[in-house]
Amino acid sequence: MLRLLNLELQKLLLNRTSKILIFISFILPLFIILISSFKIPFFGYFTIELGEWGVFNFPMIWHLVTYFAAHFKLFFAIVVVSMIGNEYSNKTIKQNLIDGLSKKEFILSKFYTIVFFSLISTVIIFILSLCIGLYYSSYNEFGIIIRETEFLLAYFIKLIGFFSLCLLLGMLVKRSAFALAFLFVLFIIEWILYGIIWKFSTEEIATRIQNFFPLKSIYKLIDWPFLRIASTKAPNNKELIHDYAVHGYEIVIVLCWTALFIFLSYRLLKKRDL
Amino acid sequence: MEPILTINNLTKKFGYLTAVKDLSFTINKGNVYGILGPNGSGKSTTLGVVLNVVNKTHGDFKWFDGQTTTHDALKKVGAIIERPNFYPYMTATQNLKLVCRIKGVDYSKVEEKLDLVGLLERKDSKFKTFSLGMKQRLAIASALLNDPEILILDEPTNGLDPQGIHQIREIIKQIAAKGTTILLASHLLDEVEKVCSHVVVLRKGAKLYSGRVDEMISSHGFFELKSNKQDDLIKLLENNPSFKSIKEKNGLITAFLNEPMKSEDFNKYLFEKGIILTHLVQRKESLEEQFLQLTDNK
């Protein structure tokens, strides 16, 4: 396992483009979250300090930070897609197999890399949130701090699921740019299907079904946090009460998709003549 | 003899096109094999199948004694297919280290093999800065990293300039001299003739011949003749049962033998008959002529 991971890390870290993209996908969210936690003066008229609004309180911070950080997964998605695309365009995939890597090992080395970077990202987010939280939060009891850390698990699963989808698309179309375009097309298809189902049934049923779709199920792991922030400001407003928790079945759905994506990538490679 | 690769009734179809048709042959340890065939005769496809990058349609093949999986067997094989494929952004050393990781070989081999192909002084240059000849040499170094039991080369001199071709051939000869089994696919006949002891001839995916190069056609060679009395000579040869056919072209008579005959005996015989030769050459068919004969007949 370590051999396969090392193999892929060498391929990635010696490539300048992917090194920069990896750097961006890890450092940029850190930077933005860190800045947003500072006092931001607006030309002396007023200052914005998000910490004052209570958004950095435990346990809310876990939700908020993972939600925002997840958006930067798109940078690493480019890396994932190009790590397949490059193997095809350099024909190194063929050479790797000839040199004695099995097709299974090839897919696994990519998958381990995805898990590895998702884990690093999760750990970074954990440490950062903990620091900011300890600094701003009004509650510092251990019990409250570890409450809702399931958002971190959701974040981890979300990254793995999304990158596995990118891996499959990369294997499918062999070219990085097309694979990303395909991702966008898939996003549109999901919403079109949603529209069609809604037309023939109700919005509620459509939403329920849509929650099983690959992209939507990955997104749904960590819900939109603003209603939650608003509800803390106006606790009695019934309209703002919303189910934002991470549910076990949501994680199971995404894990099923992930398994399917990896399996299909392998099947695709196995069937293909290079 | 110890078999290294055994292919049994291998067939590969691409849609309705049959690239390899019911092919069987065995590669034994210690010989230098050539796979000959015109472009599109299924050489690369056959190699692709045994190298785990092309899926077979029917038949089977086994590496060594058939006990290891193909990808594990490939760790004991060195192979280059068509063009050298490496990561352009990595240096020669980095690329070879990656191959070491895949094959499970110690890094110490890297410099040794780079030295063998004469790339040691360029070891820290990126692959994309290499010329085609250097890329091909790097590919050979990479194929040799694990000191393979068999080296498979598919058109190794394709697209190289004369110096490049010469360098590659010298390297191949050095490796063959060490007793490594080599399988060389090529459409360049002189290349195969120069280095191979055994040959497999393919056409349209089917095997026409496999065996030793010198036994490829049961032939006793031919004489090329010119004399003072051409017409008498032709008449004499036509009546002689030792010759199966006579051709005349631009005043040069080519007489194909039915049985072995020494040139001195032949010369003496003609002299006694009153024919004086002005030109006498005894030759065996070159591989090219044999090959063309084989591929034309069927």
Automatic annotation (TrEMBL), chain A:
Keywords per UniProt: Membrane, Transmembrane, Transmembrane helix
Domain of life: Bacteria
UniProt keyword annotation of Transmembrane present: yes
Transmembrane regions listed in the UniProt entry: 20-40, 60-84, 111-136, 151-170, 177-197, 251-269
Keyword Membrane tagged: yes
Sections of the chain in a coiled coil: none
Identification of the protein by name: ABC transporter permease subunit
Natural source organism: Jejuia spongiicola
